[in-house]
Amino acid sequence: METLDVIDTFKNTNDELKNNFLDSLDSKMEVKIDYEKKEIDYSWIDLLYENVIYIDNILRNPKKFIINEEEIVKVELAKKVTVESIIHLTQHTNLIQDFDQKTNDVTPSKILNINKEESLDTYENRFIYTLIKQIDTFVNQHENDIVNGSYCYDEKEIKYNAGTKLDNEDIKISLSLSSNNKEKNINVSYEDVKAKLKKIKMEIANFMNSELMISLTKLHVSQVRPPIRKTNVILKNPNFQKAEQLWNFFMSYDKYNFTLQKDNKEYIENGILKQQFDESFLLNYLAMNSLSKNEKKVSYEKTVTMSLNKVIEMLLDNNELDKKRFNEIINEEYSSANEKIKNRDKIILSTFEEKFDKIDELIKEACLILN
């Protein structure tokens, strides 16, 4: 990047002017900061998105067990006489109405009737039932955070007023600088998150309409409580293992699924920032001073004089040179440099003459060819 003209102007300005400018400077800086950053934790989105398939596997083939409902009924109402019915009758002879000794036929007045029904009310199914309920509640509670998304607001405002004096010249500046940076959905592909959330909500709706959820809801089963019992099914079935991992995640999940940083303050700045603006004020003045008809720019001759002055000071500090010897060195170096410049100019002039001679010859040759 090329050097800025104002920087060159600053370098070419004598130190006395710059020091006087800054020594007489009286400045004030007011700073206002309004910063807020909210980062949503989207980890649960990915976890659910990747693991809902295991819950779906469980619901497609839920574990059932047989319930035996026993009741004593009149013989004519019995649907089926089973081995259990005969055993029960031998143990309860008071239910025998008649016995034919010739044929050994037994006529009972009542008999045990057993109705066998399948039920989904197992511990493992109630665990899944509870987990789905929790997931549904969790998603509904945190959906708004996903919709609003992460964001970062960074607003800054600076008011700078300063004045200084150089001889009879009063110099003042009044500056107001503000910055407003607002960014939404930081550190995440928002469209991807929305798509995953939509898929998760669709899966949850399907879960709610499954046979297991409808059946257990009708039975008004109680939800399981932690810690989860380590049954053989939960320990060994891969689908239930994933379900337990989800359970553990949501049990330990912080209810606040975001981090919030805030920094709101107003103060008077007297540190490095103010110093930088003071120096910037000087640069602005030097740039503006180029418009002055009363030029205060350092002339080339004065610049050379200043440079020589620094060299002379350095030589006198480090060497014991008297004035006569110093003048001799200056004259020698001047003569040497002058001779080098003359030789350089001769070489340049000679080179140009050779080039022009060649061009002249080419022109003559071209004219002969044209003729």
Which regions contain 5 or more consecutive residues with pLDDT less than 50? 295-299
What's the average pLDDT? 80
Describe the biggest sheet? Answer: 4 strands, antiparallel
> Strand share of the residues?
15-25%
Distance between the termini: 54 Å
Overall body shape? elongated
Cα-atom Rg, whole angstroms?
Answer: 49 Å
| Run of helices and strands | HHEHEHEEEHEEHHHHEHHH
**Total domain count:** 3
How many helical stretches?
A: 12
> What structural category do the secondary elements indicate?
alpha+beta
The strands making up the biggest β-sheet line up spatially as 7-6-1-8
**Helical content band:** 40-55%
> How many β-strands, per DSSP?
8
Task: Walk me through this protein's architecture.
The relative contact order is 0.16. The chain contains twelve helices and eight strands. It is an alpha+beta fold and 371 residues long. A hairpin with a 2-residue loop joins strand 6 and strand 7 (169-184). The longest helix has 48 residues, at 323-370. The chain has helices at residues 5-12, 15-23, 43-60, 83-91, 123-148, 190-208, 211-219, 232-236, 238-252, 272-288, 300-318, 323-370; strands spanning 26-40, 65-74, 96-100, 105-108, 110-119, 151-166, 169-184, 258-268. Residues 295-299 have low confidence and may be disordered. It folds into three domains: 11-61 and 122-262, no CATH class; 66-118, no CATH class; 320-370. Strands 7-6-1-8 form a four-stranded antiparallel beta sheet, sandwiched between helices. A two-stranded antiparallel ribbon has the order 2-5.
